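Chain X:
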Amino acid sequence: MTLRSDTSVLANKERPSGLKSRLFAPATVQKMLAFVSLILLLVFFSFASPAFMQVDNMLGILQATAVNGVLAIACTFVIVTGGIDLSVGTLMTFTAVICGVFLTYWHLPMWTGVLAAIGTGALCGVVSGTLTAKMKIPPFIATLGMMMLLKGLSLVVSSDQPIYFNDTENFYRISQDSLIGYLVPSLPIPNAVLILFALAILSSVILNRTALGRYTFALGSNEEAVRLSGVNVDRWKIAIYGLGGAICGVAGLLIASRLNSAQPALGQGYELEAIAAVVIGGTSLSGGAGTILGTIIGAFIMSVLTNGLRILSVAQEWQIVVTGLIIILAVYADILRRKKL
């Protein structure tokens, strides 16, 4: 009885320190800093330009974040394993082109184009995962090769011409319409943003509440230990890359619906902003740590920064310079964060 009482007291004494350690964990601090940075950016650009806080501009930021945020979610799963995926941008484009082929060239129902885009993304992700897991090609090289391959295939399949969805009724509604706007006319939030948040919630559940999520963190923490414990590491790694590819298919649908066309030359460069958003949000490039919430915050930071610089008439080349600096600083912050662990 005394022992039970002492144990209970000891447990009660340990709880505050456990809570404190979670509150001040490097990943949590990084998310808090990212959120504060987002607020500061919004305040700065609001004072710098009256046009920044206009409704149309805010909607534009939300639309841009929807695409980049979905790609960043795809990257999060791969980066948590300790890998990298440089093909997410061109994969997004390729899935949009495939959707265009189904709907515009072959005149099939819209649902077939949606499934084709997501399925094509998953298949390409499985191929990247197989190259990494089975053939032991480093993720950087495997996905770099996949990036170039998909860029070429997009141009070949589309005959180097944009594919327009003018004959596909209601396709634009996937991204541009507003379900909330019908219910609350004063809040015309695009459907693309709803899809982003719904996907973020689903991805967070997968990452934190399923076997796939547990193995995603485990692979990033110590892949060899997972392998020695008897787990089929290759199968889980391929599944993770396949899931990331399917999410890229969703991004392809969003950008095709937003532009009402599949632009085969588009896509390259999106991977840099997606990876930057993931790292800014607190996901470690060495693997084993990361959250979907942090990634979404990072995606909003990238979109607000890009939009704000454009509103201030900063030249395009300097916008690219700023993006590059942010990526370097984010990676350096990740290095410092790892040293403290």
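Chain Y:
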Amino acid sequence: MTQYIVDAFTSRPFSGNPAAVCVMDSWPSEASMMKLAMENNLSETAFIVKEEQGYHLRWFTPGTEVELCGHATLASSFVIFNYYEPDAEVIRFHTVSGVLTVRRRGNMYEMDFPTYELREIPVTDAMEQAFGIRPVKAVLGLDLVCVFESEEQVRGMVPDQAKLALIEGRVQNATARGAEYDCVSRSFCPKVAVPEDPVCGSAHCQIADYWSRVLGKKEINAYQASRRGGRLHCELKENGRISISGEAVLVAVSEIIAEL
């Protein structure tokens, strides 16, 4: 089985968010996929099998299978476009979150994702203790999004992972207005064994939606302020969907020789 390591939401190797992409002829057991995800120890390992209806895509963290992942979808489309279907302009992935369409736009890959209903919830002492700084607002959708006063607070925070794991949401996001970008964010995922996701595409289904409403803009240029860093271009659609676009770059290709 061939495995690709792709850095997503970047044009430079060793930045953005790395994902492992495994292209297979048939499905191994879930236990085997979980073991390989643990072995890779990246925030996501994507598994792809081409079936009659198209490409079937699943995502695993080192701790669990997840229902949606942006950067590993981008990485998967990069692999399919460049190594399996070089003449294609559109790829459709069948996933537990429905059909996800990816279009090639020059060097960018534009993903069509769902948005989620966001509801404001009270800011709590537990949030302040977990992030080390008190948010000015909190909203909850699929994940928790905490809004802070400044970009500097988001960039400099050192959260308490154990306390983060006790508050609402699979992923805990910190975000603020940016000087160069519409928003600057970080994503922490201790509940799925990922202390910090370097660039979280799925989180921006909520982060970009939130800032689109606050700023009154359909297009949001976002930056993920992790140590690796990454850029996302987001555009809210009229049908309750969002396009999230980014670049990607190949880092390595390997052959998995252990039996799955």
